[in-house]
Every structure is written in C-alpha cells, then in structure tokens.
Amino acid sequence: MDKPRVFVTRKVDEAAIALLETVADVEVWPDYKAPSKGALLSNTKDVDGILANTEDRIDEDVLAVSNGRLKVVANMAVGFDNLDVNTATGLGIAMSNTPGVLTKTTAELGFALMMAVSRKIVAGDRDVRDGKWQNWHPSAYLGVDLAGSTLSVIGMGKIGFEFAKRAKAFEMRVLYHNRSPRKDIGEGFEYCGKLETALEQADFLCITTPLTKETHHFIGKAQLSLMKPASILINIARGAVVDNIALFEALKEGRIAGAGLDVTEPEPIPADHPLLTLANVVITPHIGSASQRTRRDMAVLAAQNIKARLSGEPMPSCVNPEAMTRKTQREKEEEYALEVLREEEDEEEV
Ligand code: NAP
Ligand code: GLV
Asked: What is the pLDDT of residues 30-62, one digit of tens each?
C-alpha cells in the first residue's frame, strides 16, 4: 500500500508539518494566496488527508476528486462553515476543527476592537497621522466608558465566555443569548432567552455564534432597529452572521453608534464597500486567532487530527464522528481485493 499523502493548503508552523511527516508524504501549497478551486482539485486528487483553513471551500467536488482515497479533512479553525460535513460523513471522510486553543486569543482581539471603537482609537490615530491634531479640547473624541455599560454576548460559547469574563473585569453588566442557558459559568451573567431582550438592553453587542443556516444574517435590519442609538456592535464570529448592508444603513443613519468587525461578507471586504466610508467603523482582516503561539497550536492540533485518523486512532476534535462508522470507497475496495485474494488462496489449497 502507498504511504498516505497529505495536502496542506497554506504554509503552517513547521511543528505541524513534522508531525504529519511521521505518517505521510506532505505537500504544502507554497503561495500566500489560497489555491484556486482548480488548484485545490488538482492537488487533492490522490491524497488521504487535507489540512485546510477557513478560505478553502471543501465542497462535494473536492471530497469526490480522490475517488474514495480521502479519509480526513482537518480545518485549521474552530468554525467549519467552509466544510461540507454532510457529504463528508456519507463518504466516510472525517472532519475536524481546532476548538479551545484559540479561544482567549480571539476574545482578546474582540476586546481590542471594542475598546478601539468605544474610544475612537483608530479615528484618532488617523487624524494624528493626517496632521489634524490641533489642540486638546473638552469635547473632542468623546467615547463611551465600558465601566457601568451593558454588554450582550450573542453566542456565549467558549469565545463568548472569555469575552464576557474580560468585560466583568472592566465592571460591565453582562447579558447573553444562546439557544439554551449555560449552567457552568457561575454567577453574574444574565441569560436572555429572547434575542430581542439582549439587543434592546445592550450598550455593546458582541457576536460569537458559529455561522449556520440558523445564524445567517442573524443580525439584520429588524434586529438592528431594536438597538440603542448609542450602542456599538462587535462581530468576531463570521461576516455573514450580520447583514452588512443593513449594518451600514443603521450606522449611517445613526441608529447605532459604531461597529468593530474582524469578519465581513465577503472577505476580503472590497475596497469600495460602503462600510469603509464610515469613520465609526473599525475593521480588522480576520485576525481573531492571529498570535504566533495560537497559530502554531492550531496547526499542530489540525495535524494531530490527521495523524490520528490515518493511524486509526481517536481524533482529538472530530466534528463528524459518525463518519468513522462508515468506510471510504478506497477502504471498501481494499477489503474486497483482500477477500478475493483470500478466496483464491483457499481455492489453491483445496
Ligand atoms: P462554541 O464554543 O461552540 O460557541 C458557540 C456558541 O454559540 C454556543 O454558546 C452556542 O450556544 C451559540 N449558538 C449556536 N447557535 C446559536 C443560535 N442559533 N442562536 C444563539 N446562539 C447560538 O464556539 P467558539 O469556539 O466560541 O467559536 C464561535 C465562533 O467564532 C466559531 O464558530 C467561528 O465562526 C468564530 N471564530 C472566529 C474567529 C476569528 O478569527 N474572528 C476565531 C475563532 C472563532 P447554544 O448551542 O446554546 O445556542
Ligand atoms: C477562525 O475564524 C476560526 O473559526 O477559528
């Protein structure tokens, strides 16, 4: 049998590559830009594993191109809305994400965005560089205090909770909305069963839900209209959880006061997007998990998932364990070939 082959769609930490090389021949896409769909298909037609990231659409075409050889796709991200999990499960292809290792790093970036917008840090920096800093004035660059304000976290999961804990340390009141209340987070975090309640009361809104069919444009015109005119929205989840055109209109008309976005729809945001014309918006280029240590940990966890699957061991963070109960087309063919061989040997003995 051939040595397994793994395609890695972007350069990642050497520690992850070294781990993969203990079980497979590894090929790494060399360019900074993501492989095109065509390049993804041609590079994965004879692989057993793919180490992908959020920009790579792992759809039915990619899942089918190896003719049953592909066994595992490890996403180097906790969100996995770029993976066609249903099709993969049916084909016996295991998929994984990287929960936990990026939680605090992403919450910290979200917090940085909240502070940048609330205290006009980016707008102030821009003015300083443009020579517009004239003098100190009692009413210049007035922001909003975090202390004493109410934060609503939409999606109080791992990242949402780390964000909420930081908000508590800044003396904020914290509300949250999930489909169900959390029993494991202690006192001081108020559950809102209705999204509307969380929206109406928020001075700051932080969005940390996964992108699913249910959460696509979860925050649109109707939801934004419930928010306070002085409120600030932070999105560190996925761009499409917020309807960005409705967001632009709400900001432009002063129906909310500001936004901090680490994610947009689409990504990258086009240079002529209306959101970029607004001074009360800060946008970062999807860098929630971008610290050196976290990116290494994410790559290593993705590699551990691939190694485990190729070695027949339990994967640390599989998102579709049902896939393990099915055989890939290649495994079925190999089993059949072995059966035929055994039958032939038996016949020869007789
Ligand atoms: P998590 O622990 O699974 O938390 C997700 C939370 O969202 C859960 O509390 C869940 O609670 C809630 N939720 C899910 N569907 C919901 C719905 N329909 N309505 C209301 N709440 C809902 O995930 P995580 O690790 O915190 O990551 C969250 C997301 O952040 C990821 O999926 C990813 O898209 C994004 N992310 C972005 C970056 C970045 O670079 N900006 C980095 C990491 C992650 P219930 O199940 O009770 O509803
Ligand atoms: C990044 O966006 C992630 O989901 O980990």
From this structure: 999 999 999 999 999 999 999 999 999 999 999
CB of 235 closer than 8 Å to CB of 259: yes
The DSSP secondary structure of 110-154, one letter per residue, reads: HHHHHHHHHTTHHHHHHHHHTT------TTSS----STT-EEEEE
The catalytically annotated residue of 5, 286, 295, 309 is 286
Known catalytic residue at 249: no
129 shares its domain with 171: yes
Nearest CA to ligand 1 atom 21: 178
Residues 72 and 194 in one domain: no
Instruction: Work out how many domains the chain is built from and give that number.
Output: 2
pLDDT value, residue 1: 66
Is residue 94 domain-shared with residue 140, that is, in the same domain?
no
Is 137 a residue of the active site? Answer: no
DSSP string, 257-305: -EEEES--SSSSPPTT-GGGG-TTEEE--S-TT-SHHHHHHHHHHHHHH
Residue 267 bears catalytic tag: yes
Q: With bands split at pLDDT 50, 70 and 90, how would you rate the model's confidence at 337? A: confident
